[in-house]
Specification:
Blueprint (H helix, E strand, L loop, with lengths): L9 E2 L16 H4 E14 L4 E10 L21 E7 L5 E7 L2 H5 L3 H4 L5 E12 L3 E8 L5 E9 L15 E5 L8 E8 L6 H17 L10 E7 L22 E2 L10 E2 L2 H7 L7 E6 L6 E4 L3 E5 L5 H12 L67 E4 L2 E7 L5 H4 L5 H15 L1
Parallel strand pairs: 10-11, 10-14, 14-16
Antiparallel strand pairs: 1-8, 2-3, 2-6, 4-5, 4-7, 7-8, 9-11, 12-13, 15-16, 17-18
Helix pairs in contact: 4-6
Bound molecules: zinc ion.
Zinc ion (ZN) binds next to α8.
Length: about 425
């Protein structure tokens, strides 16, 4: 169990959710200081229910807020969860961000669907430091997919004393273009590097930066990114792989075979992860794992994970960033009984898959007139080509009833990102640069 040095008064309250994007023009300087407030909490539950247990408030050492000063309320309706910060005195929405969680993945597994199989996951949310007392709402969607507050905390900056956080080491600038308030700030965390791996780590940082910025739409937006590398060398190299009988005490405690899926390489130690990068101003996290077995994973506004594999990382990394930054769905089909996601008769939240229940709310406006819906896949495309935009059956792990925008895409088979995925990625990038 993690340290609980700061006990926080909190209450579980069910309130009406509403759309935080309905209000605009929050004046950053009136409500916030240029610092990053962090809330560590535990989410405990199973398929039927879950609850959040606050652990501690911290102020990150970066001494600044990495996000935009003008785009404070999240206009993108994606993700199962949302952080909403409200002014205590007036109830006005001040800051919001949607996100997904590893817990959400867990509850789709066989173990997670069992009501008796309760698990606990660390979660972390970041927000600009309030100047006045605020309500911090941890929200989740109800059956109609409207956000409802599940846990409400109060935070009063006038009585809060931030616990000291020692300075971390080894922050390496990799691609720095200016003011973090107007950039997409990415931190690459080195995982599984032993004492002898320092040079390899520095080389891999550069490789990962190049892999990300080599793909469109990252390539033409390269000047909108700041990239930093953070590494802490461990006693031994590699990460835990239960299938290979290997157990390693690595920097952020990651492991293959998460939820019984051998290629699912993730960490559940979120507090440790955010402690390690506490000196950097960051919007997004990449974990770069020094191991030679294929693996990775990613969660929207949470982190992206990829093993360092010479033949594969240049494709795995942008694919995972499609999830973690863009909130995109996988467009491939996978008949895996461990992962039993069903969309039934509603539209998935992700922008790049549809059940055709409300295609106009998806990418119908990007389909050329006369294209049949559903659309037959194009044969003989080049490896990187997408083919025309339509609605092709098979996506979101399901062979039937779910449709994707193109025959091929980075989110399906490592082709280029399709036009629908590129559009969403650019919309997300714009949230950070204004
Ligand atoms: Zn796509």
């Amino acid at each position: 169990m993690k340290t609980k040095s700061w006990i926080i008064a909190f209450a579980l309250v069910c309130l009406v959710g509403g759309n935080a994007s309905a209000q605009i023009n929050v004046d950053f300087d009136e409500y916030f200081e240029n610092k990053t407030l962090r809330l560590d909490y535990l989410r405990q539950g199973c398929k039927k229910h879950d609850t959040c247990i606050a652990q501690q408030w911290l102020v990150q050492n970066s001494k600044m807020w990495a996000g935009s000063l003008t785009q404070l309320l999240d206009p993108i309706d994606n993700g199962e969860y949302r952080l909403l910060v409200k002014d205590y005195a007036t109830g006005r929405d001040l800051y919001s961000r949607c996100y997904n969680t590893l817990f959400e993945e867990y509850r789709e597994t066989i173990a997670g669907r069992d009501k008796d199989s309760v698990a606990t996951f660390e979660e972390v949310v970041l927000m600009p430091m309030p100047k006045k007392k605020v309500m911090v709402c941890l929200q989740k969607r109800d059956a109609k997919e409207i956000f409802q507050t599940a846990t409400q905390l109060t935070f009063d900056p006038t009585t809060f004393r931030a616990p000291a956080m020692p300075t971390a080491k080894n922050c390496i600038p990799l691609h720095v273009n200016g003011d973090p308030h107007k950039k997409i700030d990415v931190v690459i965390v080195a995982e599984g590097y032993g004492i002898k791996d320092k040079k390899k780590m520095e080389k891999d940082f550069k490789k990962f930066t190049e892999y990300m910025l080599a793909q469109e739409p990252f390539k033409s937006r390269a000047k909108d990114f700041n990239v930093w590398g953070v590494g802490e060398l461990a006693k031994e190299s590699g990460v835990t792989d239960p299938n290979a009988g290997r157990y390693v005490e690595s920097a952020v405690g990651s492991s293959y075979d998460i939820f019984g899926m051998d290629r699912y390489l993730m960490t559940t130690e979120l507090f440790k992860l955010h402690n390690l990068i506490r000196d950097v101003a960051y919007d997004h996290i990449i974990i770069m794992a020094n191991c030679d077995t294929y693996g990775g994973g990613a969660i929207y506004n949470y982190y992206a994970f990829s093993a360092v594999l010479d033949k594969w990382s240049m494709w795995i990394l942008p694919h995972e960033l499609g999830h973690s930054i863009g909130g995109l769905a996988d467009e491939y089909v996978e008949d895996d009984p461990n992962y039993n996601k069903r969309y039934e008769d509603h539209e998935p939240l992700e922008p790049n898959i549809t059940t055709l229940n409300n295609f106009d709310s998806k990418w119908a406006d990007m389909v050329k007139k006369g294209t049949p819906i559903p659309t037959e896949p194009v044969e003989g495309l080049g490896k990187r080509d997408n083919g025309p935009v339509g609605a092709y059956e098979g996506g979101g792990y399901l062979a039937k009833g779910v449709y994707r925008p193109c025959t091929q895409c980075m989110m399906r088979n490592y082709a280029d990102f399709c036009p629908v995925c590129k559009k969403r990625m650019n919309e997300v990038f714009d949230l950070y640069v204004k």
